[in-house]
Amino acid sequence: MRLIARILLITLLHVSHLSAAQKGNDFSEEEAIRAVVMNYIEGTGNGEPDKLRKAFHPDFNLYTVNNEDDLWIRSGEKYISIVEPGKKANRIGRIISVDYEENAATAKAEIIVPGWRVFTDYFLLLKYQGNWKIVQKSYSSRAFHELDNPVVQDASIEELFTEFDSPDHPAVAALVINKGEVIFKKAFGSVQLDSKIPATTSTKFQLAGMSKHFTAFATLLLAEQGQLSLTDDIRKYVSYLPQYDHVITINHLLTMTSGLPDFWSIKNIAGWHRDDVLTQEQVREMVSKMIPSFAPGDDYIYSNTDHWLLSEIISHVSGQPFSDFMTEEIFKPLGMNKTLVIDDFEAYIPNLAASYESDRNGGFKTFKY
Asked: Which residues are CB-contacts of 139 (< 8 A; sequence separation ≥ 6)?
C-alpha cells in the first residue's frame, strides 16, 4: 500500500511538472509572438524598417479591399519601402490578443492615429526556421471621432516618450485628451540638468513663440466685445508709430502680413548678444523706426514685431498692463492658475523648467531667447 502511495505521489509530481513546463512553454511562445508584433508596431511608428524586416516572413503580403471593391495586395518589401528611417509617426499601438497552436498563430492589434483614424490590424504568423514571422496582414479602420471610448493604455503612450524619460534629458510634459477627457498626463526628464530635479505636471515651461496663440486669442476677445475692430488702423492705438504708405490693420498683425521686420532679427544684426536684455522701451524705439518690407497683405513674413504690437494694442484698449489683462481675462477664467506672462526679466518664477537646445555632440546646451 505504501509502495502504491509512493508511485501515485511520484506520478502526480511528474504530471504537475509537465503541466508547469507546458505553461512555461506557452508563455514563452506567446511572448515570442508578441515581440514580433511589437517589432511591426515599433518599426512603423518609430521609422525602423529593420524591425519590419525582422518581423516579416520573406513572402509577407498586406491584403485589403479598395473603394472599388478590388483586392489590393502589397508585398513586404513594398510595405517596408514606405517607412522612412528615423521618421516617427503620430500613432499609438497596442496588442489586443494573441492565439496560437503548433506552428501557426493569429494576432490582433489596435493602431490609433490621434485625430484621424483608428486601425485594427489582423496578423497571420507562422513559425519559420525556428522563429515566428508575420506572413499576412489585413486591417479595418474607422474615423477617430467614431471611437466611443478609445482604450489607450498609459504604457502604450509612455512608449512614445521613452527617449525623454531620463534625468539627463530636459523636462518634457505630455497631456493626451480625448473628447474633453484627460486620459494621460505625465512629465519626463529634469527641470534643470545640473540639479537633476525631476519634472512634474506642475512644472512651468516657457512657451516662447507658442504664446502668440494666446495673444491672438486676447485680440479676438476684445474684438468680440466690440472694443476694437480687426480692420482698424494700428496707429489708432499705437501713437508712436510713424505714418506708413499703406494702412496696417490689426488683421495684418494677426496674420503676420504687415511687412514690419522682426525685431529679434534686427537685434542680432545690430550686434546684440543673445544674453543681452531687451526692454520694452528699447523695442518701442526700434519699432518706431521700422519701414515695412512690403505693402501690408502682399506677402507673409514670420515677425515677432506683429504680435508684440498686438500686446501693445491690448494694453491700450483694456487700460491694463498686458500681463494683468491676460491673467484676469484669459488665464483665470480658464482655470490656468499657474500660467503667467513674464514682463520682468528679474522676476523669480518658482518651478520653472530651464530651456535647452541640442548641441553638435548629441547633448544639450542652454537655450537663450
From this structure: 64, 119, 120, 121, 122
DSSP characters over 241-263:
SPPPSSPPBHHHHHTT-S-PPPH
Residue with cell 497552436: 101
352 three-class SS: strand
In a domain, 114, yes or no: yes
Domain that holds residue 30: 26-151
The CATH number of the domain holding residue 314 is 3.40.710.10
Backbone angles phi, psi at 123, to 5 degrees: -115, 140
CA distance 179 to 307: 31
Residue 35 lies in a domain: yes
Of the two residues 201 and 28, the one the predictor is more confident about is: 201
How many CB atoms lie under 10 A from the CB of residue 86?
9
Confidence of residue 152 (pLDDT cuts 50, 70, 90): low
DSSP 91: -
Q: Does residue 302 share a domain with residue 224?
A: yes
How many domains are there within the chain? 2
CA distance 157 to 287: 45
